[in-house]
Amino acid sequence: MASAGRPPLKILLVGSAGVGKSSLMNRFVHNRFCSRYRATIGADFFTKVTELEGQRVTVQLWDTAGAERCQSLGMALYQGSHCCVLVFDVTVAASFQAVAARQAEPPNPKLFPFVLLGNKTDLPGRQVSAQEAEEWCAQTQAQYFETSAKDGTGVALAFQSALQAALRQQ
Ligand code: GTP
What we know:
Layout: E1 9-14, H1 21-30, E2 43-52, E3 55-64, H2 74-78, E4 83-89, H3 93-102, E5 114-119, H4 130-140, E6 143-146, H5 155-169
Parallel strand pairs: 1-3, 1-4, 4-5, 5-6
Antiparallel strand pairs: 2-3
This protein binds guanosine-5'-triphosphate (GTP).
């Protein structure tokens, strides 16, 4: 499918290992879920052509590796991207703390849009409340969404918001 003659919107997914970045991308791009875990090495990207605010846009979604040893790639990937999707697992408190710590990484966070996703809401044993995440967002000007890559809850809405933020940034 041909896209409009504008450069692709580049969206980066960031978060600790295993929080569900690849799964969210797979849900958004292919509407599929796989319960098997395959760690991302370095970074992967997918392209999707979609309709946004009456325009056809090409989106490049970058899935970064959560593993500590791969995080040195982080800064290079921020270059040229239009929005960052920060992902944590609502059942793992440390994954929320890790995301909050990474927020300072881009050169100018005030000018660089973020969207925060609390994923795996389908699971029991929640450790991070929606209120806690929303309070963090209120300080950082990011929007918060609750998602489940497994059952699809909230995924379309969260990516739509990220795309809109990216479009405004382009
Ligand atoms: P890295 O590549 O290591 O950074 O991991 P990742 O953040 O890409 O996580 P990934 O998508 O590979 O998911 C890790 C595991 O969690 C897999 O077994 C997924 O099936 C599972 N998973 C991801 N999202 C969800 C979800 O919303 N609900 C449930 N129950 N499991 C999920």
